[in-house]
Design a protein that fits this description.
Elements: E1 5-6, H1 17-27, H2 39-59, E2 66-69, H3 72-86, E3 92-95, H4 101-112, E4 116-119, H5 130-136, E5 141-147, H6 159-168, E6 172-176, H7 188-191, E7 195-199, E8 210-214, H8 240-253, H9 257-276, E9 282-284, E10 296-300, H10 306-315, E11 318-319, H11 335-339, E12 348-352, H12 362-378
Helix pairs in contact: 1-8, 2-8, 3-4, 9-12, 10-12
Protein name: cysteine desulfurase
EC number: 2.8.1.7
Cofactor: pyridoxal 5'-phosphate
């Protein structure tokens, strides 16, 4: 098999072999519908419950505070639209201009339905202006929804400060933690958020499975009506293999958080410093500190097209992104890059390392990036 370098782990991750092994029975002989009242189905329902209880123990929340969905985007939609439908007396929502498309487009839809969306200012590194947030909170504020670890520039927000401000005004908080679950052990018993969205394929789990945490005192209107699955919040026959895979992926991840973050930070630092020594690059988002998602680099490169640079690297089997992969077919400058006023916005690429990248790969990768840059400048 031809060797390639996947530097786009923020888009998705390879399924871990142990996860695939755990899923296989439910893709083959253990295929029963969990709602069926016979052994083939009831065993699957039991296995779903066991997996959910184990995930709850890892995330430190109650079993019945977790709702499985088909994706992180669906989890976010359920949180925002579902909460809005149950609390129609309040019509203002606060968010940021650097949200994932799942939040951004959900709120655009609610705006078309008469809701007023306020966008909190962010600085050039993508950090929320807490004073601006405080000024926008009022008696008509329905909820605050924000991305914890930004999928494009890596900025990690001060979740405690944001949540505390919102709760002082009695406002519900939803957090997009799809990227963060891959990098920090999340303890919901101390975070005090009301709702949080997750996705399986960012943590070496399967695609097609998402998860929404919601506190027991938070009520939602379902988006999908039917047989009353997932405590009546999300009808539809459960993706049993996906649920089992999510549980297994999270189980593998929890003991390795510290070592993984250390490795990714070392790779990021070595690559960025080596590349910057040879070509002009600007790091978008925070410095390489604890306030940045490990392994994620957003780079502005002057006088080139990010799309052309991506194509040149692709020819060498090096895979990067020019923005969020969830809307990569849209040609244009990312709304996140625009919001932070990054330099050379047309020349932005995103690099996100994974555990399959080795320090020994870094010299080759730097050389390949330099060659691609020089080739584009010679055209």
């Amino acid at each position: 098999m031809m060797k390639f370098y996947d530097l786009d782990h923020a888009a998705t991750t390879q399924l871990h072999p142990d996860v695939l092994q755990a899923m296989m029975p439910y893709l083959t002989h253990a295929y029963g519908n969990p709602s069926s009242m016979h052994a083939l189905g009831m065993q699957n329902q039991k296995d779903i419950n066991t997996a959910k209880k184990h995930i709850a123990s890892l995330l430190k929340c109650d079993f019945n505070e977790l709702i499985f969905t088909a994706s992180g985007s669906e989890a976010t939609n359920l949180a925002i639209k579902g909460y809005a439908a149950k609390h129609k007396d309040k019509t203002e929502i606060i968010t940021t201009p650097i949200e994932h498309a799942a939040t951004k487009n959900t709120l655009l839809y609610l705006e078309s339905q008469g809701y007023q969306v306020h966008y909190v200012q962010v600085d050039h590194q993508g950090f929320i202006d807490l004073n601006d947030l405080k000024s926008k909170l009022n008696e008509q504020t329905l909820m605050v929804s924000f991305i914890w670890g930004n999928n494009e520039i890596g900025t990690i927000q001060n979740i405690e400060a944001i949540t505390n401000l919102a709760h002082q005004h009695g406002v519900c908080v939803h957090v997009d933690a799809v990227q963060m679950l891959a990098h920090v052990p999340i303890d919901l018993s101390i975070l005090n958020v009301d709702m949080m969205s997750f996705s399986g394929h960012k943590i070496h789990g399967p695609k097609g499975i998402g998860l929404l945490y919601k506190k027991n005192n938070i009520d939602l209107e379902p988006l999908i009506h039917g047989g009353g699955h997932e405590f009546h919040y999300r009808s539809g026959t459960e993706h049993v293999a996906g649920i089992i895979g999510f549980d297994r992926a999270l189980s593998l991840l929890f003991p390795s958080y510290d070592s993984k973050a250390k490795n990714l930070n070392e790779l990021s630092k070595a690559f960025y410093q080596g590349l910057k020594a040879q070509i002009p690059v600007h790091l978008n988002g925070p410095d390489l500190t604890q306030h940045r998602i490990p392994g994620l680099l957003s780079l502005s490169i002057p006088n080139i097209s990010g799309l052309k640079y991506q194509f040149k690297l692709n020819q060498q089997h090096i895979y990067v992104s020019t923005g969020s992969a969830c809307h990569t077919h849209e040609v244009g400058i990312s709304h996140v890059i625009e919001a932070i006023q990054a330099p050379s916005p047309e020349g932005v690429i995103r690099i996100s390392f994974g555990t399959d990248t080795k320090m020994s790969d870094i010299p080759f990768l730097i050389e390949a990036f330099v060659e691609a840059y020089e080739a584009l400048n010679d055209e």
